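Re: adenosine monophosphate structure - here you go.
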Amino acid sequence: MNILLIGSGGREHALAWKMAQSPLVDVVHSAPGNPGMHEIGPCFDVAPDDIDGLVKLALQLEPDLIVIGPEAPLALGLSDILRARGFDVFGPSKEAAKLEASKAFSKARMMKYGVPTAAYGEFTQAAPAKAFLNKMKAPYVLKADGLAAGKGVVIAETLAEAEAEIDEMLSGKFGDASATLVIEEFMHGEEASVFVITDGEGAVYLPAAQDHKRVGDGDTGPNTGGMGAYAPAPVVNPEIMARVKREIAEPMLKGMAKDGMPYQGVLYIGVMATADGPKVVEFNARFGDPECQVLMKGLAGDIVPLILVAATGGLKGSEKDFERLLELEDFRPTATVVMAAKGYPGSYGKGSVICGVAAANAMDGVTVFHAGTDVAPDGALVAKGGRVLNVTASGATLREAVDSAYAGVAAIDWPEGFCRRDIGWRALG
Ligand code: AMP
Ligand code: GLY
C-alpha cells in the first residue's frame, strides 16, 4: 500500500518511520517532508497549506491512504476535499477540526456534552470581557479563539495585566485569531496528553504522554512548541485514564457524531489532573509534537491497520484486535529530547552544520527524528528551524530511556544547538 503523508516536522518523521516498518506498506511519500523523511521515501515540495497543490499531488500519486500531520491543512478543510475526491484520509473534517481551530467552538461542545473543563466566557468586546474578569480570581487565563501558532494563550498574574491583554488581543494582537477571546478559570494540577485514535465511533487509546513546554530546566523561561516528551506518563494512572475515557473522550465522540460532525483521526486531549479529577485544557486535531515521536518509537506493533480503519470506518467492536496489532501491552518507556537552535523560541541562526546524527542513530535503542534540518549544497546537514532534532530512545524503564536519549545527544556535534537536561523529571522524581 502507498501512503501520502503531509507535513515536515519531527512528528511526521516519526509517523513516516513507524508506518514504513509495516508489512502492509510499500512506500511512504511525503509532502514536503524533511531530510530524515527523504531517507524513508520520496518527498515532494508542496507546502502543508497549499491545498490545491496537495490535491494535485494526491491525484498524481493515487495513494491508498493520506495521513495529515499538522493542524493547518485540517483547519483549511483538506480532509473534506480529499474525501470528496474518493481518498481515504486520516484526519478530521474542517468542522470537527474546529475543536482545535476555535477555542470558543471547543468550549461550547464541551459544555453541550457535559465534559469537565475550566469555567469560561467568550467575548468580542472589551467591556463585558473586563466585567467577567472582575468575577474571576488570579491568575487569569486569556485565549485567542483561533490558531496562533501555540502563542495564543496568555496567563496574567494581575488584573491590570489581564485588562491590558484583553485590549491588545481584541485589537488584533493575533490578527483574526484574537477577534474573539475565551477567558477561563485557572486550573491547578499536572498536565498530560492523551491520544485517541478514532473513526468517529470506535476508539483506541495510546499511552499518556507528557510534554515539556518551557524552554528551561525545571519548567522555567518562555513557552515553546515542546522541548521534550516521554511516555507513559504516570500522572495519568489507570483510574484517571478510565475517567478520561468515560467523562471526556466518549461523550465528545458520541456528541460530535450525533451532531453530524463525526471526529475521524487522532484526538489530542490536553488533560489537567486536578483535585476534582481530569479536566480538559485543550483539544488538538492531530498528534502532539514531540509527543508523537515517543509514541511511535515506543509502540512495538503495527500502527498502520489502526490508522487505516480510523480513515475508513469499522473500528467499533474491534478495538481489542487493533490493540493487539499495536502490541499496546508491550509499549516501551520512551523519551525524546528536542535539540533546538540557540536563541529559540526567540530569534535564532540558520545554516549551522550538524554532525553525528548517524553515530547517534547507531546507538542501542536510539532514533533521531529530524524536525528542522536541511541539506546544504555541499551535502552537509544544517539547521533550518528552531526545533531541529528529536533524539528519541526507548528502554526497559523510563530512566534507561532518558539515559539513552542523552547518550544520543552527546554523540551529536552541533555547537549552535542546545537542549533541556531534565526531560522526564516529573516521572523520575
Ligand atoms: P492551550 O493552548 O489551551 O493548551 O494552553 C497553553 C498552556 O496554557 C497549557 O498547556 C497550560 O499549561 C496553560 N493553560 C491553558 N489553560 C489553562 C487553564 N484553564 N488553567 C491553567 N493553565 C492553563
Ligand atoms: N506538544 C504540544 C502540541 O503539539 O501542541
